[in-house]
Amino acid sequence: MATWRDVMIPGGKHPWHFFSASPEIPTLQVSSRAAPAERQRELLDGLLAEQPVIAPKFLYDAQGCALYSAITQLEEYYPVRTEAALFTRYREEIASYMPRRSQWVDLGCSDGGKSWAWVEAVGAARYVGVDIAEEWLQLALREGRRRCPGVDTLGIVADFTRPLELQAVKAAARKLPPVFFYPGSSIGNFTPGDTLHFLQSIQQHLGEHGQLLISVDGLHEPEMLQAAYDDALGVTAAFNRNVLRVVNRELDATFDPALFRHHAVFNADESRIEMCLEARETHTVRLGRQRRRFYAGDSIVTEYAYKYSGEAFNALLEVAGFGNIRRWHNADRSYHVFLAGVRKLS
After folding, report:
1. DSSP per-residue codes, 123-147
2. Which residue in 121, 170, 296, 336 has its CB near the most CB atoms, within 10 A?
3. What phi and psi values does residue 329 have, to the nearest 5 degrees?
4. How far apart are the C-alpha atoms of 78 and 146, rounded to whole Å?
5. For the chain, what is the mean pLDDT?
6. Residues 201-254: pLDDT tens digits?
7. How far is the C-alpha of 309 from the C-alpha of 295, rounded, in Å?
8. Could you tell me if 157 and 33 are in contact, meaning their C-beta atoms sit under 8 angstroms apart?
9. CB burial of residue 219 (10 Å; 0-12, 13-18, 19+)
10. Architecture of the domain spanning 19-35+82-220+309-342
11. How far apart are the first and last CA of the chain?
């Protein structure tokens, strides 16, 4: 029977929570997650700002995760097919540059589906799934045990908008060099400044022989980009509007998702897709004890998706402290896979 238990880290102020397949073997740790009051304050501050905003992490409740999985199957959503083709074509070559007996650290792992072929290809000794959604982590760990029964598995609940502190990965880094895996061009959801901070925090976990394998979406025709974030079936629209139900639960708010339309546009000056919810008509929403009036056409920003040229992201990796950088890309150089290690001091 699975059990919950609290473990106090010596010298720490807060307990780490573990979900265990058995009482003796913890497999799910909570490393960084905002307390309910912090989540509510973050949401409220964002919604009361001059330009209302909801952080993308709130998109991924159970319903949001299911809708996102459906998005990845859409014809318009090219990143999944493009990345899968690159991984299939270059997996053996990329794996040849990686350490054996590593710990495979799957950032934003969802169900872990992108990792198993890599875990097998590099002979990883340990799989570490990291995600904000506990439901995904439990699914990933179960599938990992089924697909790779000889591989140790660990799940860590972490909010990437908070400092990245994966102590279990750091503690094992000398014996099991970590390979951080961040696919799906998810790095584009960070602002460039936050991207740099996140990359630096990964670099600080690598030890002497660790690496980062990361996918980055590049520049495409604006029509292709907008279709990927505003599909004909309306799945992305449902995914986006679902966040208002999350806000209603968190803040005891009164958003009516039907009063907002999904909108996605490519901002060429900023090299990013901007996804928002636009009020269809003027109305007032209660946000707990607060109220906000939305006029027709007012928008709530829910996600940015930055697009990088290969050269620009290579430079960002160098600034973050990475070295020995290798890159693979598709035929038109519009999608990139980078493998980067620790920069050696001369």
Report:
1. T-SEEEEEES-HHHHHHHHHHHHHH
2. 336
3. -150, 165
4. 29
5. 89
6. 999 999 999 999 999 999 889 899 999 999 999 999 999 999 999 999 999 999
7. 37
8. yes
9. middle
10. 3-Layer(aba) Sandwich (3.40)
11. 53
Q: Where are the domains of the chain?
A: 19-35+82-220+309-342, 51-71+222-306
Two structure tokens written together for 64: 């949001």
The residue type at 97 = Y
N residues, the chain: 346
DSSP per position, 254-323: ---GGGEEEEEEEETTTTEEEEEEEESS-EEEEETTEEEEE-TT-EEEEEEEE---HHHHHHHHHHTTEE
Q: What percent of the chain has pLDDT above 70? A: 91
Q: Which residues contact 112 (CB under 8 A, 6 or more apart)?
A: 106, 127, 129, 139, 140, 141, 143, 144
Whole-angstrom distance, CA of residue 65 vs CA of residue 135: 9
pTM of the entire predicted model: 0.87
> Contact 263/299 with Cβ under 8 angstroms?
yes
- Please tell me the distance from the alpha carbon of residue 124 to that of residue 127, in angstroms, as a whole number: 7
Q: Hey, what are 24's tokens? A: 């003796």
35 vs 15: CA distance, rounded Å: 12
Please provide residue 235's backbone torsions phi and psi, each rounded to the nearest 5 degrees.
Answer: -70, -40
Tokens read off for 253 = 């708010």
Whole-angstrom CA distances from 284 to 45, 53, 280, 308 are 17, 16, 12, 38
Is the confidence at residue 274, as pLDDT, over 80? Answer: yes
